[in-house]
Write a structure and sequence with these properties.
This protein has ten helices and ten strands. With 231 residues, the chain is an alpha/beta fold. It has two domains: 2-77 and 151-229, Rossmann fold; 84-142, no CATH class.
Amino acid sequence: MLEIDRIDTFYGESHILRGLSFQVAQGEVVCLLGRNGAGKTTTLLSIMGYVAPRSGSIRLRGRPIHARPAYEIARSGVGFVPQERGIFPSLSVRENLTVFARTFPGARWTLQRVYEVFPRLRERERNLGFQLSGGEQQMLSIARALMLNPDLLLLDEPSEGLAPMIVHEIIQVMRELKKEGLAILLVEQNLHTALAIADRHHVINKGEIMFTGTSAELEADESVKSRYLAV
């Protein structure tokens, strides 16, 4: 579904991503792990077209997207849940979900389907974005991305600052999405959450991948965890 091939991304003269390469298959959850400043969010921004790599390529279903603007990448089937959530505080839950919805005959994600997966949003349908709790805002951000009916979902630290009960709900949702064949690229700081969701993990340090492996392999590698993930 997604192929990243030796991309180099800069902010000004600062070299952030250095020859980064990895893939995400359909129905697979891949997690990017690393300390703050390692390049995880920059990877997502590079995929979405907010920051154009200076070299290398990014392909979605085999087609290059690294030279396209963000709105075209979103329309091609990529949903993005940013770290700051990005919901509209002055719009209702329903309006947030429908304002950019991508509908077509046979679309998997409809308003009714989203409410089935996130019943709390149905309960809060008429509430404005700023009236929601942090957990509800995160659910709304994920649900809004799903209303684009994407083939690939990018999530930037969806468990950050949330109560354990809400994190558990999000983990369950991610597992359901995976079962339906959605490809997911997850950036996560919480190792427990990452291990509970992802099929494969890439540990990034200074814009380079230092480890690739399954949840079991990462959990067993104390050297990688202490060197690149410990605070």
